[in-house]
Amino acid sequence: MSAGPYNYSYIFKYIIIGDMGVGKSCLLHQFTEKKFMADCPHTIGVEFGTRIIEVSGQKIKLQIWDTAGQERFRAVTRSYYRGAAGALMVYDITRRSTYNHLSSWLTDTRNLTNPSTVIFLIGNKCDLEGQRDVTYEEASKFAEENGLMFVEASARQMGNRGDNVEEAFLETAKKIYQSIQDGRLDLNAAESGVQHKPSQPGRNNLSADQQASKDNCAC
Amino acid sequence: MYATKQPSLRIDQSDLMCKKGCGYYGNADWEGYCSKCYRNHMDQERQKKSRQSQADHSKAQVSGFSKFEEKKRQQTDKKNKYLKSLPVFRKSSSAKDSGRPEKYIDMRQANPDADKLMAEFISSYGEWGEHVRKDFFKCVQAFTTKMLSELDAKPIEDLAEIAQNYYNLYNKRVNTNDVYQGVTSEVKDELLDFFERYSMVSLYSFLFCPPSTNDEEKDLTIQDRIRKLSWVNAHHLDCCISETSIEVRDLVYTAINDLLGLDSMKAPQEKLSCVVRCCRSVVKVLQHCQGGPVSADEFLPALIFVVLKANPARLKSNILYVTRFCNDSRLMQGEAGYYFTNLCCAVSFIENLTAESLNMPEQEFQSYMSGEVTCVSAWESALVACEGMHQLCEHLALLKGLLERTAVVQDGTQKLREDMEKLKDEINEKVASVLERTPLIIKPRKIPIPITRDNLPVSPSIHIPKIVDTNMPETDEITPHNYYLQNLSMTQINLLDSTKTKLQLDITPCLPVPNTAQMPSQSTEFLSPSGIDNRSLDSLTPDDNSYLGLSKINYDIDFSDLSADNSIAEELTPEKRKSPTPSFTTPDPFSPVGVSCNIMQSPLVPSSGPMLVPVQERPPKKDDFVLPFLESIPKKVEEETLLDKLEETPIISLPSPIKPFTSEYTGFSKQGSKIPSIPCNTGDFSSLNLSQSSLPSSSKDPN
Ligand SMILES: Nc1nc2c(ncn2[C@@H]2O[C@H](COP(=O)(O)OP(=O)(O)OP(=O)(O)O)[C@@H](O)[C@H]2O)c(=O)[nH]1
Ligand SMILES: [Mg+2]
């Protein structure tokens, strides 16, 4: 096992949260594999996936934690909020209860992540227009009130709004990257959810990332 | 066994052992050797392959803490090199890196867990003295520095070996060095443990799933594989776990949760203890299902089942990390070693399992794996049912909370209702008492009103009550000609009682009118509340104009009421009412024309008097009001004049009795405008309340 060259310069850590069965795992699968997983077993604890994307010419590796929606694993999943740079909060547009729970998910997220964490709201399963139970306007208003980004998406259907899956992940990354550029997100904080990799192979500058943390934290 | 044998659910205990037969547990990641034999084996291999002997090199470096200084230097060099290599966009933070002390220190700063451990060390082992602490941290620092310096140069296996060497070195040091002389052997073991824990927590982000390895790929592979195997149930595994029993399910969940904790821990021994806890739970599950002792044979399938259902995050990374950096001695023996080895077996089984190992036809297996056939496993549905139950409980709890809150609200409502009842009673009582004190006297007076009207034209002079105020110098000026509206007194009492309010104002207007018209000079305009009076008069009499003029005067009176001092009260005493003294005479608009001033006034005064005096001490006095008026309310006077004009009252220009003050004191118009017309006969003064209530604030009533 030799040290291979890093082909990315950042790692962004994401979490996907939301009620059971809203399609979190499917969204992740769609994003990483570009496939719809029809019979996805319920997630136990957490699963993870990765994909390398490009933002402003920078290769960024997304390390995405897909959490279980089940309450009984909440204790486990909560430990993954820490240090997430992006949080995708998912509800199912065909089940209002999943929408109603958003505020508690949001509270958790706000409490357990750092203030610079980008939160993106996804209304999933928008291919099932006929069974819609939550209007776009309503959710959009909720997102606006809480300062979240928002799209409706479908893990099943690409094209049409299905592209929004891609968009949600990419927009989040863009926003995070923007925060880094602005200096709003402190790269070196232990829990920032962002790691920086030098482009030079075999180098690991994590410690330097951490070094700077205490000093240049102006925000 | 690992590579050679077909994965099987039944393993022999000997299969868990090192294939060298040294008596320690072997491990799939060590190619079936125990760690010692594996390392020996690797060393031999390496030496065979290349004479370069990298291993020797690393060993030489590790040889002792004495090389600490040298390492430090190396490390600083490295950092400089590193800084240069920073990409451009990191400049801002990297600029600050210069002048930073040691890499190690910095790393610790950014690691809150390490800080916690530091505190824990001091609290737990501080008693052994400063020198122990110093030596401990010196060794930790030497170790971590070494690791960091080798991080990029060496493959992870070599780093693992360095770590093991340092563990051994520190072990030796603890047992031989003078510094640790007084320390008991138990504490020595603990220190050893802490050494491992502290260094590994500090180095976790570098050593766990390092990007230089393909650990993450392996994680993804097995995660996907386990997901694909989600259809496997206890029956397939020939395992006695009954998936439908609630208790069993809960126990299995406990085991699963224990296993899930694996990824959240940082130190190898903490991860290991998660595994141990999970395995103990598995044993409990089996005990529950079988109702008896558990054989080793049954354990592995159950563990496999739990691993399959848990699909723990980064399973391979975790196992590899523990294998590499946990102190070997822990893994090679004891409960932890045994369970960990079993876990490795389970994982290896999962990675390699085939239709055969599950005792099912190949075709069926394939169709399951490809997702063609999906079976709803009892486990899966139980999971959903569980969540349903959970939500049910959640809602029940919510309802309970609501119930409690409703009860509270109801209590509050009840209380409020009682309070309101009480208040109502109180008010009623008060009203009753007030009514008692100042009962119907008013009405009789009002009745006379029509009479006064008639009378007025006849002999206006008579109507004008003369206000003689002993207290006031101004009053002296007031000649009988001046028509004062005595009625002022009625004003304020009554916010609570509508009845009270009614009484006060009416009287005034009637009288002044005739007087003012005839007697230009002396009537003090400010004293009389004009607006109110006028209206009442209007309704009564055809010739409104004449009365209007008077009305101005009336306004003044209102004012005075507000400003009135307690002194009024004295004057208002019932005796005075009954037999009004000459000084006290007030013009009573309602009184019959022919009656002398005194007589007329008396009825009015008394009514207001009794009410005012006891309750509010605000009885309006003729005398009193003059003064406060002048001082405090010049504005109103002006307004009043305006009003008068509007009403086209001819009498506006009456000379005020109090000349010096007149300039300031213009009038009362504000109130006048607010005062709605009051029909004389009804005696309804509710409208007056408004004007009166507004007065006190503006006039700076002493009260
Ligand atoms: N029609 C439609 N179905 C979807 C979509 N996304 C997910 N599903 C279905 O919804 C079900 C649940 O999806 P999952 O991805 O397992 O849900 P989850 O949020 O991961 O659930 P947990 O892991 O239990 O928290 C699956 O049967 C999916 O096939 C979608 O966009 N459209
Ligand atoms: Mg899922």
Observed structural traits:
A: 219 residues; alpha/beta; Rossmann fold; seven-stranded mixed sheet; 30% helix; B: mainly alpha; flat; binds guanosine-5'-triphosphate; binds magnesium ion; methylation (chain A); GTP binding (chain A); hydrolase (chain A); endosome (chain A)
Notes on the protein architecture:
The complex is a heterodimer of chains A (219) and B (703). Chain A has 219 residues and is of the alpha/beta class. Chain A contains 7 helices and 7 strands. Chain A is globular. Chain A starts with 9 loop residues before the first strand and ends in an 8-residue tail after the last helix. Chain B has 703 residues and is mainly α. In chain B, helix 3 (68-84) crosses helix 7, helix 13 (296-310) crosses helix 16 (334-352) and helix 27 (544-563) packs across helix 31 (622-632). Chain B has helices at 35-49, 54-62, 68-84, 91-97, 103-109, 112-125, 130-150, 156-176, 185-207, 215-228, 246-260, 268-290, 296-310, 315-325, 328-332, 334-352, 362-370, 378-437, 442-446, 449-458, 460-463, 473-477, 498-505, 507-510, 512-518, 530-540, 544-563, 566-572, 574-578, 597-616, 622-632, 634-647, 659-662, 669-674, 686-699. The interface between A and B is large, with 54 and 64 residues. Guanosine-5'-triphosphate binds at residues 18, 20-26, 38, 40, 42-43, 68-70, 124-125, 127-128, 154-156 of chain A.
Question: Can you describe this structure in just a few lines?
Answer:
The complex is a heterodimer of chains A (219) and B (703). By secondary structure, chain A is an alpha/beta fold.
Present the secondary structure layout:
The complex is a heterodimer of chains A (219) and B (703).
Chain A: E1 10-18, H1 24-33, E2 46-55, E3 58-67, H2 74-78, E4 86-92, H3 96-100, H4 102-112, E5 118-124, H5 136-145, E6 149-152, H6 164-182, E7 194-196, H7 206-211
Parallel strand pairs in A: 1-3, 1-4, 4-5, 5-6
Antiparallel strand pairs in A: 1-7, 2-3
Chain B: H1 35-49, H2 54-62, H3 68-84, H4 91-97, H5 103-109, H6 112-125, H7 130-150, H8 156-176, H9 185-207, H10 215-228, H11 246-260, H12 268-290, H13 296-310, H14 315-325, H15 328-332, H16 334-352, H17 362-370, H18 378-437, H19 442-446, H20 449-458, H21 460-463, H22 473-477, H23 498-505, H24 507-510, H25 512-518, H26 530-540, H27 544-563, H28 566-572, H29 574-578, H30 597-616, H31 622-632, H32 634-647, H33 659-662, H34 669-674, H35 686-699
Helix pairs in contact in B: 2-8, 3-7, 6-9, 7-8, 7-9, 8-9, 10-14, 11-12, 11-13, 12-13, 12-14, 12-16, 13-16, 23-35, 25-27, 26-27, 27-31, 27-32, 27-35, 28-30
The structure holds guanosine-5'-triphosphate (GTP) and magnesium ion (MG).
Domain A20-type (chain B): 12-46
Protein name (chain B): Rab5 GDP/GTP exchange factor
GO molecular function (chain B): DNA binding; guanyl-nucleotide exchange factor activity; small GTPase binding; zinc ion binding
